[in-house]
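Input record (Table S2, row 199):
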Amino acid sequence: MALKSLKISGFKSFADPVTIEFDQKITGIVGPNGSGKSNLTEALRWVMGEQSPKSLRGGKMEDIIFAGSEKRAPLDRAEVILKFDNHNRQLNIETDEVEIRRRLFRGGESECLLNNKKVRLKDIVDLFLDSGLGRDSFSIISQGNVERIFNSKPSDRRFIIEEPAGVSGFKLKKHQAQQQLQQTDNNLQRINDIVQELE
Ligand code: ATP
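Output record (adenosine-5'-triphosphate complex):
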């Protein structure tokens, strides 16, 4: 699976639409300080489901929308579109190309599309689980992350291996199943209380 292109508009410093084609084996992005290199990797993480404004260097999610400059008024919408080559079906979707799209409007409404169909953000996150990609994977290593990984405890570092090995997805599903069991237990207890009251 390879990235094919990234299109961003209204995202952080990228007011106008910009498309980057990843048509070579290696794509390097260079530019002076503050020109938006990190914003590009953040756009990648965001479209793949990032939900923490803090990890996108913001206070709230709306901070990712172009906030205006000396010459331009702020915009009302941020959009990122990412296309993958999926010939090898690494993503569990039966199309050779997969396109994910995420939009956020000032005011808070947001939208996610997978191959042009509206989906939940969770569907996008699930799509990348165990693929070695995704917002939490180590295919994107942000500034400061290398130091954090080296300084972390071995038990925390295990996560790096678990993600591409496919363990993280099972852990998440186990956690969700446990939560459902707990919820069912609570419901049963409540029913028992009501039955006892009625007897
Ligand atoms: P460095 O090489 O110093 O790490 P960089 O090329 O990675 O820099 P970024 O950190 O990606 O640069 O970009 C920072 C720029 O993005 C700043 O000029 C900042 O004002 C701008 N920026 C961030 N959020 C927004 C926003 N919502 N609207 C407009 N501009 C923004």
